[in-house]
Structures are given as C-alpha cells and as structure tokens.
C-alpha cells in the first residue's frame, strides 16, 4: 500500500516538475530538449512504466492508469507549447517584415510593337495610299530566285555585292535582298499589271558594326505594266520620301548599277540631321543614300513571264532600319535585334 502511495506521489512530482520546466521553453529547440527529458525513453515517467510489471499485481492497474494520465497530460501540453511557439514565430516574422500595404502596386509592363515593325507599318500605310499592295515572299530562297532569275548568273562579279548565308542543302540560301520576291510576284500575276511592296527580313554574311547587321528589313517596290517610265519611278519615289519625311526634304538620283535594272540609280536625300551642311550622320557629304532603284531589266521581265516588248516596270529597294534610325536618331543598327528592353521601350 505504501509503495503505491509513494509512486503516485512521485508521478505527481514528475508531472509538476515537467510542467514547471515548460514555462521557460521558448523555442523549437528548447521544446525538443524538454521532450527528450520528460517524455523520452529514459525519462522518469517512462522509468515508472518499466517498474510497474515488478509491482504487486493489485497495484499495477492503478499505477498504470496514473502513469498514463501523466504521460497524456504532458503530451497535450507539449502540443500546446508547440503551437504557442509557432504563433510567436509568425507574429515576430510579421513584425519584422514591415509590410506596407499603402505602397502603390507594380505596374504591369505594356507590350508594344517593335520599332522596326512600326516603321514598316507606316511605310505600308503610305504606299497603300499610293496604290501599292503588300506582297509577302519567302526568307529562305533558292540560288535561282535570289540571283539567277534576277540576271545574276553564277560567277557573275556582281554576286560580290551580297555576302550570302548558304545552307547545307545545295542551292538553298537565306535571301540577301527582297528582290527575289519580284520574280515570285510576277509569276503569280503575269500578264496582269502589278504594283506591290515586298517587305521582310534579309540576311547577309557581314562583319557587324554600327551600320551593318547580318539581318535587317528591306522593302522592295515593283510596278509592272504598259508604258511605265523612269519618270513614274522618280515621281513615285519622291512622293514616297516626301510623305515619309515631310514636304521639305530634297532628293537626288545618281546613276548606279544593279544587274536586275537598266538603267539603275540610287536615290539620296538631303541630310535631315544637318540639312545639307555636312555632319557625322552624312559623313560630311550633306546627302544620305537611301535606296537603289531602276527600270526592271528586260531579262528580268522575261524571267517573270512578261514580254519586254510590251511591258515595262520600275523597282526599288531600301533598308528600313536605316529609315527608323534617321527618323529617331538611332546611331547603332545593332540595337534593333539586341533585345535590350531599355532600347525597345523608347518607341
Ligand atoms: N536588291 C538591292 C540590294 O539589296 C536593292 C535594290 C536596288 C532593289 C535596285 C531594287 C532595285 O529593286 O531596283 O542591294
């Protein structure tokens, strides 16, 4: 009987001691240690459990029950303390983070069209008013269309004008200019008249610098019909430049050479940066070269399916990033495809 009373008293003490110790538990680590000491394998309650089987049979149930009560109570308090510690950690976190709900939210960035696309769209708009339709042609071309049908046979020295990207497949190249689209369009429309603009990316195997890129956009103009003259070419181009850059611009035509036109010319525009006085933009000449043009060569007309005796036409080609650069004061063409959002965002 004594033994039983003693052990019950001992269990009560054990419980009291454990509960007291719990007051100074303030972290997850403390709690781990407390659990080890008061509920672990070699803790005092567990020792009592071990002793029970050696007790008198009559005492065992009572002691067992009491020991269980103590263990359950301590486990419950362990759980409560665990929650208390977590709550405190959370509160502390919130206090330290200093969340300011009055701060303005982050503006989502608005998308926009690439500056090169904006320029192209403006060009289409102007040319549409002048009666030109957009005609899209392929970027991967055959040697035949990119050169031969444009009156540039293999080994012709004029091939040096275009440094070409060849592919592993014989005769397949990246177009070096939009001119092959002329042939595709003529094949589609001959013998009807055409008045089209062919836009798109062209590729050149070049050393890149501020004014040379390995890829850039061109537009090609093509008009084929009866009685089309050099005067039509000149008038159309001057009007286009005037609508693009304003009525004050002055232009001039210089004789030049392209295998697919005869005669060929290049058009210069009075430098819009210095108004002809000579500056860095025009390399001191006062003029900016902006396009190549000419009357479609009879061989090219024939290759396109037109009878050069009855039909004539004019063509022109220009790089449109050059136009964007002039209009927006961009001094390095490499900016266009470098994908630097700080550059692209400005337009
Ligand atoms: N295809 C020429 C180039 O990329 C530009 C050009 C010149 C196109 C004269 C034409 C033209 O249609 O008539 O250098």
Largest sheet: 7 strands, mixed
Mean pLDDT: 93
CATH C-level category of the largest domain: Alpha Beta
Number of strands: 9
Overall form: rod-shaped
- Under CATH, the topology of the largest domain is which? BirA Bifunctional Protein, domain 2
Give the topology string: H per helix, E per strand. HHHHHEEHEHEEHEEEHEHH
In DSSP terms (H or I, runs of 4 or more residues), the helix count works out at 11
Helix content: 40-55%
CATH architecture field of the largest domain = 2-Layer Sandwich
Give every kind of bound small molecule, once each. 3,4-dihydroxyphenylalanine
Q: What separation lies between the terminal Cα atoms?
A: 96 Å
Can you list the strand order of the major beta sheet?
A: 1-4-5-9-8-7-6
Low-pLDDT windows of residues: none
Oligomer: single chain
């Amino acid at each position: 009987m004594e033994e039983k009373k003693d052990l019950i008293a001992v269990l009560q003490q054990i419980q009291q001691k454990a509960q007291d110790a719990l007051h100074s538990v303030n972290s997850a680590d403390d709690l781990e240690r407390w659990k080890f000491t008061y509920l672990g394998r070699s803790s005092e309650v567990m020792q009592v459990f071990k002793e029970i089987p050696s007790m008198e049979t009559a005492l065992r149930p009572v002691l067992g029950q009491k020991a269980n009560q103590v263990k359950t109570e301590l486990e419950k308090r362990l759980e409560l303390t665990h929650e208390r510690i977590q709550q405190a950690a959370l509160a502390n976190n919130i206090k330290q983070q200093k969340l300011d709900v009055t701060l303005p939210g982050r503006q989502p960035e608005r998308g926009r069209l690439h500056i090169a696309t904006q320029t192209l769209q403006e060009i289409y708009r102007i040319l549409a008013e002048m009666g030109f339709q957009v005609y899209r042609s392929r970027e991967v071309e055959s040697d035949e269309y990119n050169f031969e049908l444009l009156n540039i046979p293999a080994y012709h020295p004029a091939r040096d004008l275009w440094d070409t990207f060849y592919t592993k497949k014989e005769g397949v190249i990246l177009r070096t200019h939009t001119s092959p689209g002329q042939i595709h369009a003529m094949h589609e429309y001959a013998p009807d008249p055409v008045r089209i603009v062919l836009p798109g990316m062209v590729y050149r195997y070049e050393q890149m610098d501020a004014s040379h890129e390995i890829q850039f956009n061109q537009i090609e103009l093509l008009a084929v019909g009866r009685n089309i003259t050099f005067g039509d070419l000149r008038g159309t181009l001057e009007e286009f430049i005037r609508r693009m850059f304003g009525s004050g611009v002055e232009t001039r035509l210089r004789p030049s050479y392209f295998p697919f036109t005869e005669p060929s010319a290049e058009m210069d525009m009075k430098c819009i940066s210095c108004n002809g006085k000579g500056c860095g933009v025009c390399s001191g000449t006062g003029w900016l070269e902006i396009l190549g043009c000419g009357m479609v060569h009879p061989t090219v007309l024939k290759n396109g399916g037109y009878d050069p005796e009855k039909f004539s036409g004019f063509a022109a080609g220009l790089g449109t990033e050059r136009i964007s650069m002039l209009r927006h004061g961009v001094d390095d063409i490499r900016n266009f495809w470098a994908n630097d959002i700080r550059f692209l965002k400005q337009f």
